[in-house]
Amino acid sequence: MRIQVRRTGGFAGIERHAEVDTTDRPDAHEWHALAEQAMASGRGAPSIGVPDGFSYEITVDGKTVYAADPRLTEAQRQLITRVLKEGA
């Protein structure tokens, strides 16, 4: 599974992008479960967040959903944090 996160917005407006490929990872099942939960509660179109808040584009195996602060679900927040931290 290929998981990509693109973060835009924020006070400085700096875009950040990271990607994780779960192939051959020993914790792949955890990533898959978290990605499924995050995708299930995502929107099909970019949502309007708050001024200086972040907006996110989450793509899993070619399917994209959108989310924005402060309305992230716990699964979305965890997935975004992990991908931006561990991804390349």
Q: Would you kindly provide a brief summary of this structure?
A:
The chain has about 90 residues and is of the alpha+beta class.
Overview of the molecule:
This is Protealysin inhibitor emfourin. The protein is an alpha+beta fold. The chain has one domain (2-86). The chain has 2 helices and 4 strands. It has helices at residues 28-40, 74-86, and strands at 2-9, 16-21, 54-60, 63-68. A 4-stranded antiparallel β-sheet has the order 2-1-3-4, with helices on one face. β3 and β4 form a beta hairpin. α1 crosses α2. It starts with a strand and ends with a helix.
Distinctive features:
88 residues, 2 helices, 31% strand, globular
The radius of gyration computed from the alpha-carbon positions, rounded to a whole number of angstroms, is 12 Å
Count all strands and give the number: 4
Structural class: alpha+beta
**Which stretches are low in confidence, meaning pLDDT under 50 for 5 or more residues running?**
none
Strand ordering within the main sheet: 2-1-3-4
| Element string (H = helix, E = strand) | EEHEEH
InterPro entries: Emfourin
Organism: Streptomyces lutosisoli
Pfam family, one: Emfourin
Protein name: Protealysin inhibitor emfourin
Topology:
Layout (H helix, E strand, L loop, with lengths): L1 E8 L6 E6 L6 H13 L13 E7 L2 E6 L5 H13 L2
Antiparallel strand pairs: 1-2, 1-3, 3-4
Helix pairs in contact: 1-2
